[in-house]
Design brief:
single chain, alpha/beta, Four Helix Bundle (Hemerythrin (Met), subunit A), Rossmann fold, 7-stranded mixed β-sheet, 4-stranded mixed β-sheet, 11 helices
Length: 350
């Protein structure tokens, strides 16, 4: 049994919702486009197929695509003969989602271990992949515990997009780890889930995950959060992160900035949950982050059904930038970081 097969076997004994896994010498993932009505398993046979799965958002979410990148490097290693072959595979993987810092860091970490290895580099590469998988799962549980301390019994919490188990390693990703940990501690929280147009990750995935965990939730339109805040229905906001700049600016799913502005106006704490791996100290501010613009047809269709005339022009920035002054705290596996972020985030760089 390979190290990766053994790791999956161990995970199957835990209450995890795995988005991607290695089993019997093969890679499998759940097609998240089919959620919540179907758990469609896709067999991935090579790195090109995996890259297409990431681009098409069969698998998505900062943590999950980082893990996919790790598995992708292992897939590539099976036919690679030189470090240059691995570098080519790494380039393909990184190019699939340019905004996702976690994917790039994970792939580059494995590339460095492999190309610098003495002796059996393939075994060292597989060991590196297993270490990354274990680290990601530990991150989720630790940051969940730190974040849960910020939530009071009876709180109603707004979350946006999907930063949950299927966007991570299976426990709770970023934001859902906080919510799951609070619930497991016995806190009677309620979650408002914004649908997250146009891909509807909130409606299709986050509400689905919360239901599987038995956590009460209510689905809302993206544009109704300010009304609910004004009505006193929301006490906290917890979102995930695709990248955090060195000054604490947050790059996350489009619509996050809107919720942060509304929360700030209503004096409601707005938190982002992340891992130290997602902090990009090479970015002085969020404005330096490349923002992915996706196909306009994704705005003009919902689940394949057209909602606008063919000739209508549409624009789909997939992410936005939330300035650090709107963020009450950055929840990490090392604790909750507060302002001044440029100074206090440095503890994560050690």
């Amino acid at each position: 049994m390979s190290m990766l097969d053994a790791r999956t076997e161990a995970w199957n004994r835990e209450a995890l919702m795995l988005p991607i896994w290695w089993q019997e010498d093969s890679l499998f993932l759940l097609d998240q486009r089919a959620f919540p009505f179907e758990k469609k398993v896709v067999h991935i046979t090579d790195i090109d197929q995996l890259c297409k799965a990431i681009v098409s958002m069969q698998i998505r979410g900062s943590g999950a695509i980082g893990i996919a990148g790790a598995y992708g490097m292992y897939l590539a290693s099976r036919s690679a003969k030189t470090c240059e072959d691995l570098e080519s595979a790494a380039g393909k993987l990184i190019a699939t989602r340019p905004t996702a810092i976690n994917l790039r860091k994970t792939v580059e970490e494995i590339l460095q271990v492999s190309c610098n290895a003495q002796g059996d580099w393939r075994t060292k590469l597989e060991g590196s992949v297993v270490a990354i998988l274990d680290r990601q799962l530990a991150f989720e549980r630790k940051l969940g515990s730190f974040g849960a301390a910020l939530l009071a019994d009876g709180d109603s919490v707004l979350t946006h997009c999907n930063s949950g188990a299927y966007a991570g390693s299976g426990y709770g990703g970023r934001a859902l780890s906080v919510l799951r940990s609070a619930w497991e501690q016995g806190k009677k929280i309620h979650v408002y889930v914004s649908e997250t147009r146009p891909y509807l990750q909130g409606a299709r995935i986050t509400a689905f995950e919360l239901g599987q965990l038995g956590i009460p939730c209510t689905l809302i339109t993206d544009s109704s959060s300010a009304f609910l805040m004004r009505s006193g229905k929301i006490q906290k906001v917890v979102v995930g992160s695709d990248r955090v700049a060195g000054n604490g600016d947050l790059v996350n799913k489009i619509g996050t900035y809107m919720h942060a502005i509304a929360a700030h106006h209503h004096q409601i704490p707005f938190y982002t949950a992340t891992s130290s791996h997602t902090i990009d100290f090479s970015l002085a501010t969020g404005d330096g982050c490349p923002i992915e613009f996706r196909n306009q047809e994704e705005v003009k269709h919902i689940q394949g059904v057209p909602i606008a005339l063919k000739e209508t022009q549409a624009l789909y920035p997939s992410f936005d930038i939330t300035p650090n002054e709107l963020i009450a705290g950055i929840i990490t596996e090392k604790g909750v970081i507060t302002a001044p972020y440029s100074q206090n985030l440095l503890v994560l760089n050690n």
